């Protein structure tokens, strides 16, 4: 075993931004698919092991495996979503039969599909599409590429989509899907083949009037363009133009909508504006921190800048950074774009560990990464006035209780991050009508929809004396209940 200092390890920079790496022991390097090096010493990233494993996948990002696993540990999001459903049902004496229907997903598809890798080997991957409910319109929901994707996570996210579309009053149901993989383990060419083969495996289980995917974690407009192209290749030539709305979040040139890239972050900021008005809170000069600096987090940050608010701490998969004098979101986006999308090593902020980030005194916290981040363990650490949930399911029920006891407001996910699906609906409409709306039109319509939903949640919270998450569920579920009662149960 060779004893080495971290500075001697080529390529270690992103992961070595934490201050607590001690003298470490080189354990092994495995060339080929990935190189992996284990170190002895306390890793302030994962905070759980004295031996930490850092992995460099084919495409070359060093990261800490245990950190990734720890921060995405399953406390079963699906259980949390059903718990919240039960809680809401009790609060409003909701119809028990309809609750039985909504507590289950309608259709669940698991596909195992082979894809040829660049080195000629074949890898079999697992993909999911879960359709929770389509009483209000076609199934709608994102596709996530992540190692922790499994059937329960997809069930939970599909269910949240049903509540979200019902809450913001758009004619869609709820679905979600994904592939269990880490995109960093694959080349762009392999990712394209994976995406296309997955789309082919889904076959007619998706469709422009039936089930419409969109981007989510680790998927983007390019991936949507591959899905579109693959799907269109499977329909007769004369039907192709009529099927462009099979997927939303497409690149503009391929039928995407202006404003869809920033839509979720824009919706987050619109809801924060409403919260600030309600609470007489000045956003100019207000401080905030963000977890997750991808599509949602980075857009929310850039749009908060327009209010003169100050970003003082950020975390992503590569680590956390802070600067009490402020981090310029545009500059950080530029830096990340040249650093494989990661914030680590950003020279105008200092690296901090995750716990320090959570303890940072700020006005707002925008979780915009993954689920189950605010829990009984982490909620007591937060020193903020409001949590604006850009991510889906970032707070578990225990975390919710702690936040409530501590008087920290929550703008719940199904309201706060609904901007994405709202503008996806606009994209779908534009495709169907062969229209192109300008950005002002998209933003104006988004603003009206989300403010309207915000007001309904606020009024419902007052009427029932409920917390905001329960109020949002009440609005959504009441709409579902009305529809089921009007239509009855066949036969
Ligand atoms: P993204 O892939 O663009 O970005 C995810 C970000 O989270 C990245 O910066 C990544 O480094 C970071 N991250 C991942 N794991 C982390 C960890 N363990 N700790 C800290 N940071 C971590 O994804 P996105 O589209 O921005 O989605 C983020 C969240 O917002 C998800 O919960 C998603 O479901 C939700 N959401 C997205 C949209 C959308 O339109 N993209 C819409 C509604 C909700």
Describe this structure in words.
- This protein has 491 residues and is an alpha/beta fold.
- The protein is built from 15 helices and 17 strands.
- The strands form four sheets. A seven-stranded mixed beta sheet has the order 14-13-12-11-15-16-17, sandwiched between helices. Strands 6-7-9-8-10 form a five-stranded mixed beta sheet.
- Strand 6 and strand 7 form a beta hairpin.
- The longest helix is centred in the C-terminal third of the chain and has 26 residues.
- The relative contact order is 0.12.
- The structure holds nicotinamide-adenine-dinucleotide.
- Nicotinamide-adenine-dinucleotide binds next to helix 1, helix 8 and strand 12.
Helical content (DSSP H or I, runs of 4+)? 25-40%
Sheet-strand content, in percent, reads 15-25%
Q: Largest sheet, described in full?
A: 7 strands, mixed
Helices, by number, come to: 15
* Beta strand count: 17
User: Which regions contain 5 or more consecutive residues with pLDDT less than 50?
Assistant: 1-51, 56-63, 65-73
Q: Describe the strand arrangement of the main beta sheet, using strand numbers.
A: 14-13-12-11-15-16-17
Multimeric organization: single chain
